[in-house]
Design goal:
This is CDP-diacylglycerol---serine O-phosphatidyltransferase. The chain is built from eleven helices and two strands; from the N terminus they run H-H-H-H-H-H-E-H-H-H-E-H-H. By secondary structure, the protein is mostly helical. The chain has a domain of about 180 residues: Four Helix Bundle (Hemerythrin (Met), subunit A). Helix 5 packs antiparallel against helix 6 and helix 6 packs parallel to helix 9. The longest helix has about 35 residues. It is globular, with a radius of gyration of 22 Å.
Length: about 280
C-alpha cells in the first residue's frame, strides 16, 4: 500500500537539494547539518537586501549595520560548513551569488542613496562599475579555486581585495558622515566619493596580494596569546562604544596592511625561487 501511495503521489514539485537527479537518489535523506550553512547564507542575503530597503527609507546607519552583518554571516557560513562536514557544491555556488548581492549590489546602492546621487549620472555609473568589479572579482576567485598547479603557500593570500573587505572599504564615506564629519553632499563631494568607490573596485579586480583569513591557522608563541586576546577584547569594546570611528580606523588600517601584504608576498616568492634554484627544479 505504501509503495502504491508513493507511485500515485508522483514526482515532488520541488527540485532535489544539491542538484541531484529525480528518482531514488532525489528521495534519499540528507543530514540537517548540510542545510544549516545554506540557511546562514540565505540570512546573509536577507540582511543585505534589507540594508538596501533601509537605505532608501533614509535609515542609513541601520542599513550599513545590515551589510556589515551580512559580511559577518559570510565569514562564518563556510567555517560552519567545514565544522559540520556540510560542504556542497550547491552551497558554494549560492555563497558566490550571495556575495555579489551583499558586497557588490548592496554597498553600491547604499552609497548611491546616501551620497552618489548628488553626482547625477556619474554617481550611478560609479555604482555600476563597483558592482561589476565585485562580480568579476568573485568569478576570478571561483576559477582560481580549481587551479591544481597553484602553490600551497598562495592560499595565505588573496588576489586583489576580497569582496567583503571591499564592501567595508567602499562604505568609508558613510562612516565619516556618521562620525559627524561634514561631507557637504555637494556634487564635488559626491564626485570624489564616486571616484573613491571606483578605486575600491579596481583594488578588488587587481592582482595585488592581500592577506587571507587562512593566516588564523598559524601557531602562536605562548607569551603572545594573552596580549592578543586583550587586543581582540579591546577592539570589540571599541566597536561597541565608538562604532563608526573604529570602522573608519579599521578601513585605514586595511589600506596600510596592503603594503605589508605585497611586501610579504614578494619576499615569500623570492624565497621560493631561491629554493627551487638550489634544488634544481
Amino acid at each position: 500500500m505504501a509503495r502504491a501511495a508513493r507511485l500515485m503521489a508522483g514526482p515532488s514539485p520541488f527540485a532535489p537539494f544539491d542538484g541531484e537527479d529525480e528518482g531514488a537518489s532525489a528521495r534519499r535523506r540528507i543530514p540537517f547539518r548540510s542545510i544549516i550553512p545554506n540557511l546562514i547564507t540565505l540570512l546573509a542575503i536577507c540582511a543585505g537586501m534589507t540594508g538596501v530597503r533601509l537605505a532608501f527609507e533614509g535609515r542609513f546607519e541601520i542599513a550599513v549595520a545590515m551589510v556589515l552583518g551580512a559580511a559577518a554571516l559570510d565569514g562564518i557560513d563556510g567555517r560552519i560548513a567545514r565544522l559540520l562536514k556540510g560542504q556542497s557544491r550547491f552551497g558554494a555556488e549560492m555563497d558566490s551569488l550571495a556575495d555579489i548581492v551583499n558586497f557588490g549590489i548592496a554597498p553600491g546602492l547604499l552609497l548611491y542613496a546616501h551620497t552618489l546621487k548628488e553626482a547625477g549620472s556619474l554617481g550611478w555609473i560609479a555604482a555600476l562599475l563597483y558592482a561589476t568589479a565585485c562580480a568579476l572579482r568573485l568569478a576570478r576567485f571561483n576559477t582560481m579555486l580549481d587551479d591544481p598547479h597553484q602553490p600551497k603557500w598562495h592560499t595565505g593570500y588573496f588576489v586583489g581585495v576580497p569582496a567583503p573587505a571591499g564592501a567595508g572599504l567602499a562604505m568609508l564615506p558613510m562612516y565619516l558622515s556618521f562620525m559627524g564629519v561634514d561631507l557637504g553632499y555637494y556634487p564635488a563631494t559626491a564626485t570624489l566619493s564616486a571616484l573613491y568607490i571606483v578605486f575600491i573596485g579596481l583594488l578588488m579586480v587587481s592582482r595585488l596580494p592581500t592577506f587571507s583569513g587562512k593566516s588564523v591557522g598559524i601557531r602562536l608563541r605562548r607569551d603572545v596569546v594573552v596580549p592578543l586576546i586583550l587586543l581582540v577584547v579591546l577592539y570589540v569594546a571599541l566597536l561597541m562604544s565608538f562604532l563608526w570611528q573604529t570602522l573608519a580606523a579599521t578601513a585605514v588600517a586595511y589600506f596600510i596592511s596592503i603594503v605589508f601584504s605585497v611586501r610579504s608576498y614578494r619576499e615569500r616568492a623570492r624565497r621560493e625561487r631561491e629554493h627551487e634554484h638550489e634544488h634544481g627544479y
